[in-house]
Amino acid sequence: MTDTTSQSGPMLAADGTPLKKSLHRAQRRQKVRALMLIAPLLLFILVTFIAPIFDMLLRSVENDIVPDTLPRTVVALQDWDNASGEAPDEETFRAFYTDFALAEEQKAHTRLGSRLNFEMSGISSVFRSTGRDVGKFDTDYYTDQFVDADEVYEDPVQWSEWMADDGVASALPQTADAYAGWVKVLNEEGDDPLDEDIPDFVYTALYHDLAAGANPPVLPSVDVSGWDDISLKEQFIDSNEDWADPDIWATIKAFSGPYTAGYFANSIDLQSTPEGFAQRDEDERIYIKLFIRTMVMSLAITGMCILLGYPIAYLLSHLPARKANLLMILVLLPFWTSLLVRTSAWKVLLQNQGVINDILVWIGIVSDDNRLALINNANGTIIAMTHILLPFMILPLFSVMKTINPSYVRAAKSMGANDWTAFWRVYFPNSVPGIGAGSILVFILSIGYYITPELVGGVDGVFISNRIAYHISSSLNWGLAAALGSILLVLVLGLYYVYDRVVGIDNVKLGG
Amino acid sequence: MAPTAADNAFVEFDRVQKSYDGETLVVKDLNLSMPRGEFLTMLGPSGSGKTTCLMMLAGFETATHGDIRIGGTSINHIPPHKRGIGMVFQNYALFPHMTVAENLAFPLEVRKLGKSEREAKVQRALDMVQMGKFGGRRPAQLSGGQQQRIALARALVFEPELVLMDEPLGALDKQLREHMQFEITRIAHNLGITTVYVTHDQTEALTMSDRVAVFDDGRIQQLAPPDELYEAPQNSFVAQFIGENNTLTGVIKSIDGGRCAVQLDSGEVIDAMPVNVSKPGERTKVSIRPERVEINKSRLSPDAHTLKAEVLEFIYMGDIFRTRLRVAGREDFIVKTRNAPDQVRLQPGTTIEIGWLPEDCRALDA
Description:
The structure holds 2 protein chains of 2 kinds.
Chain A: H1 19-59, H2 65-69, H3 71-77, H4 90-105, H5 108-117, H6 123-133, H7 140-149, H8 156-164, H9 166-171, H10 173-189, H11 200-211, H12 232-239, H13 246-254, H14 262-267, E1 270-273, E2 276-279, H15 287-318, H16 321-332, H17 339-350, H18 355-363, H19 378-403, H20 406-414, H21 419-447, H22 451-456, H23 464-473, H24 478-502
Chain B: H1 5-8, E1 11-18, E2 27-34, E3 39-43, H2 50-58, E4 65-70, E5 73-74, E6 85-88, H3 100-110, H4 115-128, H5 144-156, E7 162-166, H6 174-191, E8 194-199, H7 202-208, E9 211-216, E10 219-224, H8 226-231, H9 236-241, E11 246-256, E12 259-264, E13 269-274, E14 283-288, E15 307-316, E16 320-327, E17 330-338, E18 351-354, E19 361-365
Parallel strand pairs in B: 3-8, 3-9, 6-7, 7-8, 13-19
Antiparallel strand pairs in B: 1-2, 1-4, 4-5, 9-10, 11-12, 11-14, 12-13, 14-19, 15-16, 15-18, 16-17
Helix pairs in contact in B: 3-4, 3-5, 4-5, 5-6
């Protein structure tokens, strides 16, 4: 006879398997069932919510376009000292020429220009103008020279055979690289490299390879020693003199990695300089100001909602059910009309010649030439948003107040507390969880609010979310929008954490 | 200190009426006078007006008519927080956001007592209910019985002369309730405070009180010490409400001083003691306690009227036997006999003869 209770090892089930294992097996079915029940929702949220957000947040650091478009330049720039005050050397420009010519074939240079323009304004037009010129560089001289020397150099079929040869490829690294890049672009565009003329930049690369002393097999030998050496640096600077500006090159170098902190730096009003990130000029700093304004105004709106909502919730929770239900419908009435309609109504009411100003003037509180500016500024945003978000404060407050036992206040009074003391010492602390829940709701909703500030906020009443929307839909700087959004998300999570430490998330009740 | 007139009528209800809707009276013409130090229980079914009376006394409801006096002073216009009445609520109403000690200190704080005095009083009150070590806990961390003790301590900590308790033991299980019944009476008597206790549990009322006021339909039906209430109910409601009771209906046949003969609806005639019947021909309900019914004919006086009874059911309850009989056409006649060695266990189906002493059979209003 074995005594399972006296042994020192793990507890065993009746059939001798460890009890934990047995329990686990018994619970597995339940767990699988539970998982199956939530699986559709989980999948839905994953596909429509988590994945897009993750993708969006990733955009805030993504920078593939620079190394993908200018792979050779990025490598060549590694040796360039961006503090030298001079543009890079000829070597770099040669690599840049190949990259740029290839990019121009796919029109990728304009996208790259737009991308870099976020970091340094004006780059975009430099890329564009040179994009128009790069086909007309004097490098057709090399093409003509090679074709003059031997007509076989004009034949794309011949080229394709040469480049398939390992000995050629290793003897002519720049040529092989340029040719391979060109073939890749043609293949992507669905063209046949055997039908197309070999572009100037391949001949240019071939010249530079041969001039460097390469001795390739197969190719008909050409003596290039007497040929003119065309400076690509000069060609680029002729096309647009900004290429001589080291700042452009510093920018390209600073953003040459596949990931960048540039968007985040931008969102906290930093800009890249040759010495690294530095604060923008005072009049260009907007985002930190906007973040602070968003926080302060959201707090103000939350405060207004508490002030206005608390008495209403108190009244509602103390009325008999029938009357309370009727009044609750009035509280929920705003939900029945479209947000846009309500916001537009505020425009009518609050504008300079609007109803409220007219009444104030008529009563004589304000003079006619001194009407209050109630809209298209921070006032308008706070008034309209308080109105819109008030139900989100009243509802949790009401449901928490409903659960406060009326005998608490009676007990306090029976012990000698007057009405105010009974309220403040006993009733109010028990309603704090409702304030907490309402505040979190209102604050988080208002911090991301967009439509109302856009319509009634004017210039100084807009939120950071309006800026995000602008970058998503107008300036198309999605990276910056993603960075701003990430910061907002982190801020909200941080505040939530602080709130948890100060108030305690257990103290939040939505009722019950 | 010699008892004064005010001491004999420390709490007074003088023709108090209460209506919520202006159409019906919840409390009808209530008159009650309590001496100082008494433990009085208001007992009644729900809706009988007992809680309303308590709330009027506490000041949470106002009397529609009449006067409520404490110590000779009318308190009709004194707000609840100035009445100085301790109160224990049905669900204890301990403040959940304060510790036990803070709960107890609350009435002292609003009375602006100094810190050291406060702490001493709180500790004394906690010790009194044997909860001295629980000052730092939150109410939610206490069991129901412990919360009950704290609620009691909190109602007493500011030394009120009058304490009101609104069904304070309703949420406790039976054993704990019995223990707390004893505790509460002990503390109340030790401190000599006047207590008004509201309950719908008659056992609680009988075991705890000096006097019990039985409420029904907005009136006090009977106000008497527990034994009197049980043994000498003044009307059929009280007889029904307090304890178990057998009721037979009939008409007074003859009445003679302390005795009357009642002809039951089924035809038999029994002896009874007239309580609130006065002349022959009146309809009456006679009430006999199940334990006062005699099944052994030899113990009855020879001229006593007896009734035939058929045994329907015998229930063994441990300390007692409970037998259901068919008597005078009714099938709910109960007899309780003590589980003694010589006691007969009646077999269902047998027919016996039962009787009682005339003074145990009370002829009440119909």
